[in-house]
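Colleagues,

Please find the record for the two-part complex below.
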Amino acid sequence: MSKLAELKKRLSTVWDLRSTSSLLSWDQQTYMPPQGSGPRAQQMATIDRLAHEILTADETARLLDEAATELNGAADDSDEACLIRVARRHYNRGANVPGSLVEEFSRTCSLAHENWVEAKRSSDFPLFAPHLEKIWELARQIAGARGYQEHPYDALLDEWEPGTTAAEVRAMFDEMRPRLVALVKRIRESGVNLDASALHQRFDLERQIAFAKFMAEEIGYDFNRGRQDISAHPFCTSFSAHDVRITVRYFERFLAPSLFGTLHEAGHALYEQGSPPQFNHTPLRGGASLGIHESQSRWWENLVGRSRPFWKRYFPKLAGFFPEQLHGYTVDQFYRAINRVEPSLIRVEADEVTYNLHIMIRFELELQIMEGKLAIKDVPDAWNDRYSEYLGVSVPNDGSGCLQDIHWAHGILGYFPTYSIGNVVASQLWERMLEDLPNVDELVENGQFKSVLGWLVEHVHSRAKKYLPKELVQKVTGEGIQCGPFLRYLETKFGELYALDR
Amino acid sequence: MSKLAELKKRLSTVWDLRSTSSLLSWDQQTYMPPQGSGPRAQQMATIDRLAHEILTADETARLLDEAATELNGAADDSDEACLIRVARRHYNRGANVPGSLVEEFSRTCSLAHENWVEAKRSSDFPLFAPHLEKIWELARQIAGARGYQEHPYDALLDEWEPGTTAAEVRAMFDEMRPRLVALVKRIRESGVNLDASALHQRFDLERQIAFAKFMAEEIGYDFNRGRQDISAHPFCTSFSAHDVRITVRYFERFLAPSLFGTLHEAGHALYEQGSPPQFNHTPLRGGASLGIHESQSRWWENLVGRSRPFWKRYFPKLAGFFPEQLHGYTVDQFYRAINRVEPSLIRVEADEVTYNLHIMIRFELELQIMEGKLAIKDVPDAWNDRYSEYLGVSVPNDGSGCLQDIHWAHGILGYFPTYSIGNVVASQLWERMLEDLPNVDELVENGQFKSVLGWLVEHVHSRAKKYLPKELVQKVTGEGIQCGPFLRYLETKFGELYALDR
C-alpha cells in the first residue's frame, strides 16, 4: 500500500467517526427521547475523543510527511495535494490539544445545552452563567493549545473559517457598519411602511411542510440523498454526499420561518450534495468553510428566495396551498411583505439589512470575553446596551436577549462572523455569476434552477474543501472577500422597496 | 486511578462505539435516505473495527488481569466481579479474530443484504447463493479463530447465548419435537377451526399506530426513554437504559402484526429499560442473552398478550378504536381469533404451537452447513423437504422459503435457537412468578401491570448481563433451562381452545 493510501485509510477512520458524531447530534435534535441526553453526551464525547486521538497521533504526522514526499511534484491543486494540505491543517489545529480537554469540552457543552434550554425558557441568565463560564474557560485553554499569531480569537475562528483572522473580520465590519446604519436610518425616515400582515395568519402545519418540501425539491434538493425533519433549531447536517439532511421549524401563525428556513437549509444541503462523491470519508468532503456555506444558504434564501422573479413563479403556487389566506394579495404585496425591514430583537428573524448588526454585537462581545475585558456575569448588560445603540431596541428579558442563540451553549465560539462573511460572499458570487448568466431573473422566474445550481456546482461545490475560503473566492471572482457587492445589493434593493431615491 | 477504573474507562469506549453502531443501524432501518447505504456500510464497518481493536488489544488483557488481582476476594456476584467476567468473555471471543476478518465479514454482510432483498423479492436463490457461501465461509473462519470445545457451531451460538452449546439445543429440541408434533396432529384432527376473520379487515394505519402506542404504554414502556417507529422488519434497539427504541410494521388489512409486534418489541424494550442505569456504557448493560431477551418479548406477546384476561380488558378499548370493524365480535371470539393454530410457511407469522418447528428446521440446516454436510446450493431442497415433513406444507418458492429470514444475509448465524430458548424460559419464569403472584390473571384483567413488571425487574432485568443465561434461570427458578413448563402451557391452553380433552 502506498503511503498516500495508508494516510487515506487513517483519515477515513477519523472522518467516519466525525460523520457518526454528526448523526448522534442529528438524532439528539430530532428523534431522541427526552431522557436520552445523559448517555448521549458520553457517547458523543467518546466518539469525538477517538477522532481527535487518531487524527493527532504521531502516526498521522509521519504519514502526512511520507505521503507528501511520495507526492512530490504533484500539482498544487490536485486532489491529493489538497487532501494533504487540509489534513495537515486539521492535524496542526488538534495536535497540541490534549484528548482529555476535547472530551471535557464535549461533555461540558452537552450538559450546558440542557441547561441553556431551561435558562432560555425561563429567561434565567444566572442559571446558565456557570456553564457559559466553564465553556469559555475551556475554549481559552483550547485556543492556547492550538496557538495563534495575532489574537487568541483567531484560534477559535480558524475552526470555522480557516485562515481568517479577527482583524480581517473587524475590518469588514468597520467598512459595513456606517453604510448599514445609514441605510437603516434612511429606511426609518422614508415614511414607507411595508405591510407584512399576509404572513401573519393561520397556516396549517401539514400544508406548510408540504410546500416546504415542494420548494426544496424545485431548487434541486435531492430527497433520495436527503430528508427534511422538524427541530427546535433548523439546521443542515450530512454524513456523506449521499445523506444530507435538513430540519425546519414551523409556526402556525407565521409563514416566513418555514419558507425561508427551508430555502436557507436547502441551500446548505445543495452545497453538501454537490460535494464530489469521491471525497466521501475524507477531509475534503463538504464546504470550504462555514462562511462559504452560509454564502450558499443565503444565496437561495435571499438572493433567489426573497427576489421578485422567484415569487412571480411561486406566489401563485403558494396561494394554491393557502387559497383562503392569500386570496386578494398580489405578488408585489407579497414581495414587499417578505422584505419588510424592522430592527428587532431576534437574529434569526432579522431582515437582510439589520441582520449583520446582530452579528457585529455578538462578535464584539466574544472578542471582549476572550480578552478578559467582559465578565460573563456582565454579558446581559453589554448585550442590551449594544442592542439599544445599534438597533434602537430595548431587550425586555434575557430569553429574547443574550440567551437567544444556541451557539454558545454548544461551545460554538468564534462562529458568528461566518454569517456575515456568507452574506458578503453570496453577493460577490452573484455578481460574478451575472457575467455567465445575465438572464438569471428570467431563469428564476421560469423555475429553471438547473443552470443556476450548475453554476454553483461548477465554481463552488465541486471544489468542496480543497481551498481556503479566501483562495476559493479569489479563484471564482478574481478578488479577495469584499463588502462592496453586498452593500450595493442592499442599497439597490431596499432603495427601490423604500423609495429612497425619491 | 485504580486498575478497575482504568478498565472501566477502556470498556466504556468499546461499549459507546457499540451503541453508536446500533444507532447507525437504527437510522439505516428507519429514516436514512435511500442512497445513504454505501457510505453507511463503511461508517458501520469503521466503528465495528475500532470497537473490536480496542476490545482485543493487549492493553485490555493486561487491565483485565490487573483489575482481577485488585479485586481479589470480592464476592463472585458483585457488579465488579461480574463486569470482569463478562468483559473477559468478550475479550476471549474476539482476541484471536483478526480485525481484517471482522471488517471483511461486516462488508460482506452489508453487500449481501442488498442482494438478499432483491433475491427474496424475485425468489431467486442462485442470486443470493454466492453471498451466502461467502458468509458461511467467513463464519467458519471466525468460529475457528474463536475456538470451541465440542462443535464449531458452539462458537457462533456463544455470541448470542453465552455458555450454551449445540448439544444442549439439540437435546431441548429432541424433547420438544414429539410433543409438538403430537399436539399439532391432535389440533388438526380436532375438527375445531378457530375463525380469525376479525383480524382480516381494513384497519386505518394511524389508528393502529395510536392503539399500539397506547398498549405499549399500558404495560409500562416509558416513552420518555423510548420511541416507536416504523420499519420493514420490527426490532428493538437501545443505546442506554435511557434510550430504548422499538419499531413495528403495520398492515392495513391484517391487525395482528401491529398488536403482537408491539407487545413483542415492547417486551424487549422493558428488559432494556429495566437495566440498572449504572450499567450504561458497560458490558453489563442489557439482557443476559438473546434467549433471555426473547423470554421477555414472548412473555408480553404471548403469556400476557394472547391471554383471555388481557383481552377482557383491552378488547373493549380496541373496539373503541375500531368500532365498525369489531362491532358484533365478543371477547371470546377475538381470543380465539388471535390463537388460531395453522401450520404455515412463514416463521414470523407462526402461532405459538408451530413456531418452534420453524426454528428446528433452521437449526438443523445450520448445523449441517457448518459440518459441511449440506452444500449451499442444496439448501432450498433441504428446507422444502423439512417444511413438508414437520409442518405438512409445501413451499411454492424460495422467497417464502429459505430466503424469508433476514438473519443469514446479516451474518447472524447460530441465532435461531435463541427464539426457542426464549419461549421455553418465558414459561419457566411464569410458573415461578405464579408462586409470588398467584392472582396474576386478575392483575392483567385490571391492567395492573406494575407488579408483574416489578417481578421481572426484580428477578431478571435488574441482573442485566451479570450472569450466563443458565445461571440466571437457575437463580430465579432453582433449576436449569427446561421444556416442561412451556409444553404444559401449550397443551393446557390449546387443549382448551381446541377442546382436545373431549
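The beta strands of chain A are 226-230, 236-240, 243-248.

Comments are welcome before we finalize the supplementary table.
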